[in-house]
């Protein structure tokens, strides 16, 4: 019993003096998906998403697991973690994509959402990728 009291006291002192670093996983918004309708006349591959984090007041870019979306199809990304975003309002989405058979990546126009709060397992969208994107 005396040993456990000593251990607790040592831990308390270390915490109070900053001698112990507490691991912090950050505020990842986990397993976020994006529903996208491809209105182009060819397949696209979505590689990244940019979004405006209103709390941080900055545009953030995240790689997402590449998903190919056929012409005319509605696709949902596989689910990725967005850093510094749990419980935050995310707006102004821009998708970085490649056209079928193309190596050049380009950005879509800005896409909005009516429900910006990021929570675990959320699906944003539907977003429409038009011929002009």
Protein model, in words:
- The protein is mainly beta and 133 residues long.
- The chain has a single domain, classed as Immunoglobulin-like (Sandwich).
- It is 12% helix and 44% strand.
- It has one helix and eight strands.
- The strands form two sheets. Strands 1, 4, 5 and 8 form a four-stranded mixed sheet that branches. Strands 3-2-6-7 form a four-stranded antiparallel sheet, with no helix packed on it.
- The chain is elongated.
- It starts with a helix and ends with a strand.
Topology:
Layout: H1 2-17, E1 29-38, E2 44-53, E3 58-69, E4 74-76, E5 80-82, E6 90-99, E7 105-107, E8 123-129
Features:
single chain, 133 residues, mainly beta, Immunoglobulin-like, four-stranded mixed β-sheet, four-stranded antiparallel β-sheet, 1 helix
Order of helices and strands: HEEEEEEEE
Total E-strand runs: 8
Strand content: 35-45%
Which spans of ≥5 residues are poorly predicted at pLDDT below 50?
14-25
> What is the level 1 CATH name?
Mainly Beta
**What general outline do the C-alpha atoms trace?**
elongated
Main pleated-sheet profile: 4 strands, mixed
Helix content: 10-25%
CA-atom Rg in angstroms = 21 Å
The count of helical stretches stands at 1
Distance between the termini: 68 Å
